[in-house]
Amino acid sequence: MDGLKAINVYVVATDDGLTLIDGGWAIPEARELLDTSLRSIGSGFGDIRRFLVTHVHRDHYTMARQLGTEHGIPVALGADERPALDTLLNAGELTENPFSRVLVSAGALELAEQWDQVGGDLPDPALWAHPDQWLDGDQEIRVGTRTLDAVHTPGHTPGHFVFADRAAELLFAGDHVLPTITPSIGFTFPPVPQPLGDFMASLTKVRALPDLRILPAHGPVAPSSHARVDELLAFHESRLTQSLAGLAAGPVTAYDVAGTLGWTRHERAFDTLDVTNQGMASMETKAHLELLVARGQATREETPAGVLFAAVGRG
């Protein structure tokens, strides 16, 4: 449905039972695989004592919430994910796709209409209920004999957390530090003012931790959090430079600038992307342009056709 092939769910075994980092997506195939995997180590759903969920996206949260409800397992989630959950739980009151206004502000009016036309069932409250514990700010969490540093890392989502096991030199990185791709930025609701600024600040925060082995939510284990964070920061600085160059024609929208950029590791042209990915690309480009404004390198003007950006010194 969205190109997702797998999510990595990590199991920390203790004398009292299991703690799972993320839960997976609550679809039958994933549930069966998780059950089989736990049985392969002599355990089952009844042995899970807690879920520590990195962020609210469905491929991380919904299985944890489903199993938590069924088996009385506490689920912990970042406190800044509450607005997104509240929106989902009140989806019946929505009159438009929650991303439509973000797409309109990015100048992607036609995409906003197409996203609005995509139907679907209302969110299942059983999968999107509030967690049992809100993680509010950096804190230490005891997991058996281990101590995990729960580190708030907003950017990909406002309430994203990573969990660092300094003694074992491991970083349960969620979608914050991925080994081969960059997480989507700006694809959140309700929107926040500076998602890219938040993400880069969070990367710098993780860079200040010891160099740790990355246990990501997607992709293979990677050897160095420092090396990968440096790569991600360099990528976004390059992208900011490219986005600023895209303002050379004068006041333009994020959608216009997105059309000048290459996408994915294969540098695909914008017009070869499907409607969903064109929308995500437009929102991510807007996040880059908003950071250029915050840095004093660009200006912005809100219009009915979307926010118009211009390089400083241009009209």
Automatic annotation (TrEMBL):
Source organism per UniProt: Nocardioides luti
Record-annotated Metallo-beta-lactamase domain positions: 6-218
GO molecular function: hydrolase activity
Keywords: Hydrolase
Lineage of source species: Bacteria, Bacillati, Actinomycetota, Actinomycetes, Propionibacteriales
TM helices/strands, residue ranges: none
The UniProt record lists the keyword Transmembrane helix: no
Protein name: MBL fold metallo-hydrolase
